[in-house]
Write the structure tokens for this entry.
Amino acid sequence: MSTGSSSRVRLFPIRYTVWALCMLASVLGLAAALAWGGWWWLLPAVAIALSALGWVDVQQTRHAILRNYPVIGHMRFWLEYIRPEMRQYFIEGDHEALPFSRAQRSLVYQRAKGEPDSRPFGTLLDVSANGYEWVNHSLTPTKLSTQDFRVWIGGEPGQPLPGKEVCTQPYHASIFNISAMSFGALSANAILALNLGARTSGFAHDTGEGSISKYHREHGGDLIWQIASGYFGCRNPDGTFSEERFIENARDPQVKMIELKLSQGAKPGHGGMLLGAKVTPEIAAARGIPVGQDCISPSTHSAFHTPLQLMQFLGRLRRLSGGKPVGIKLCVGHPWEWFAMVKAMMETDITPDFIVVDGAEGGTGAAPVEFTDHVGVPLQEGLLLVHNTLIGVSLRHRIKLGAAAKVITAFDIARMMALGADWCNAGRGFMLALGCIQAQTCHTGHCPTGVTTQDPLRQKALVVPDKATRVANFHRNTMHALKELVQAAGLHHPNEITAHHIVRRTSDSQVHQLANTILRVQPGALLGPLDEQHNVFKNYWPRASAQSFQIAPPPLQPSAAAPKEQGTITG
């Protein structure tokens, strides 16, 4: 009995049932079509096609699922394909941030559309959860006349900052701007809408490392020109830095600041490549590269190799630009490399006008999973290290700090100000304002909203005048919310927010001011004995050198001892 049963299973496995039903439907459908004609021909046509698909499935060698489950096995791949959408629409909680929660996305959409963003019936957050934060309010709130909060970068008119190669064209920037996103990563229509929105509401638009395209220029919005290791927009044919091309772009009145990118949150320490097939004539023109050839972004710069050379290069860029603010963008990595840069500032008396600190949790572009999840310092820790180091060497007053990584709400901005930032940038927040639905298909060219694709048909879905209005609305309404938050705290400007104004729950029964839980350094503290300083300063500050990014890290014991030379491991 058992043997017979096994034979029947071998002759007709149950997993082939759907395929068999398709073949049966082919026969029956063909008979029905011959008998009655008309629409009955659809039945055998579909059934025969599915039967043929089953035959292909059992013959192919790529997918074991399809060989064992012909026809029906395709359902698995289809369900896997729509899994992100099913999770987002039906399963994901309102406050499950992956990477942005439904509540966060809805807030951006509401502010971008100019819809009411008030919430009835109290908070949906668990105020008893560890990590919950709030701003303490005042019994004497202020009344502010404007929400146009700004910060001077590069000194103030007629008041240049001390040092060599000083800025002579300071920029009065909004404290909330568009973070670096290149044309090529974003569609032409997305760039047009972002820049028009920036011009309308009076804030800045960072070009990203893809340089300045014709779409950045069309509406004339303020630009922060980012230069990375590929020197796009200012490169020689061999990929090295070109003074002539730099001057041509840097002295354009639309360019307000120059940002030298050392690393980014999405993939710090990693270069990139734009495949030749994606290098269109428009992208090639913006980047200064040949059409149709692979475009390489090296992992390191060729214009400098030491911290001293970096500072000299920044001074050179400032001089060549005609005195515009010049700064750096980095995701903090090895602390001794950052310390080496600070020591180079002290030795050369050349300081960047600004530093944008990007957190490892940031990033609009695609990156290897290991880099996305496990490389680079998160924004809070990176910003605090940069802020406190500059305070510790008495250089903080010469350098403005920007913060970029998951900043989309007024509270996000306030919190970054409390940690030491002078202004904030947002990338994904403004992508959401354009209509991004967080489909996470940015790297495929199949963006459903036309934000991150070069497909002409797909990007037609993004209507520039409408989306530009939403970009401007999002900025304006976020600034209005920030104004109300600042007023409630009894302050006059967001730059008055300190870590003493933010409170964080640390356990079920304890809360602490943020000032009591974060790294803090007294002015000039790193210029003297380090006995009372944090271990990161005690261990690495004395060993960092302006002459090199490299130091010998503290000796580490291997996880397993190496075998002795005189012996061998035998069985």
